[in-house]
Amino acid sequence: MKLRNKTAIITGGGSGFGAGIAKSFSKEGAKVIVADIDMEKAKEIAEQTNGIPIKVDVSNKISVETMISEVLSQVKDVDILVNNAGITHLPAPMERVEEKDFDNILAVNVKSVFLTAHFLVPHFKNKKSGTILNIASTAGVSPRANLTWYNASKGWMITATKGMAIELASEGIRVNAINPVAGETPLLKSFMGEDTPEMRKKFLATIPLGRFSTPKDIGNTATFLCSDEASMITGVALEVDGGRCI
């Protein structure tokens, strides 16, 4: 029970990697707050994890502020924040990506980290402890062509993780990131452009272990990084990628 008596907010917790993290955290004793823009999915995962579902648009200041305020009114204390919510744009030459898609990428993948920090870091500082985990991507380390603006957003998240870690260390707050390779999640089709046996074969050829990452893979890694077993680890962006970035 690595996370016994811990409470964790997981954004985008209703599906994909977020759901895998919620399930792993719950199994290890944590109370999970499943925060998602899709309330039906949030409720489904919350039921499976004995957690609390809550709706949030991570790109919207008022929505994030309201979510964190409501959580703190219900549970009184939060120990872990997982910034998992994320989107991508369809593969395309950089000059052909629509401005609205670029703006959405920045709002969900970048601004959300700023907003959750803005409203939850003061709580962590007050109690001189807390753990933040950002779900970045191998795309921020080894970019894929035609996903330039998504790559950039995840590179930003990795740099933000390191900056947050060094700034918050003296406050007893650890900040780390995970860099998953493409996984069996709702975003896989968007990354590939189309989900066909041929495209899967092409993607898998770039992963030495020969398979996509799974929500369970990311959940297990997140559990370790957010547990006391990782108490000396901060500022790390850990690749969970089957060797893709070697």
| Helical coverage, percent range | 40-55%
So what's the overall shape?
A: globular
Main β-sheet description: 7 strands, parallel
Going by helix content, strand content and strand pairing, the class is alpha/beta
Beta fraction: 15-25%
Q: Write down the overall mean pLDDT.
A: 95
Report the radius of gyration as a whole number of Å. 17 Å
Contiguous low-pLDDT stretches (5 residues minimum) are none
Widest sheet: strand order?
Answer: 3-2-1-4-5-6-7
Q: Write down how many β-strands occur, each being a DSSP E stretch of 2 or more residues.
A: 7
Distance between the termini: 33 Å
Order of helices and strands: EHEHEHEHEHEHHHE
Number of helices: 8
General description of the model:
The protein is of the alpha/beta class and 246 residues long. Helix content is 46%, strand content 15%. The chain has eight helices and seven strands. It has helices at residues 16-27, 39-49, 61-75, 99-127, 148-168, 188-192, 197-204, 215-225, and strands at residues 7-11, 31-36, 52-55, 80-83, 130-135, 173-180, 237-240. Strands 3-2-1-4-5-6-7 form a seven-stranded parallel beta sheet, with helices on both faces. Helix 1 links the parallel strand 1 (7-11) and strand 2 (31-36). Helix 1 (16-27) crosses helix 8. It is globular. The protein starts with 6 loop residues before the first strand and ends in a 6-residue tail after the last strand. The relative contact order is 0.15. The model has no long low-confidence stretch (mean pLDDT 95).
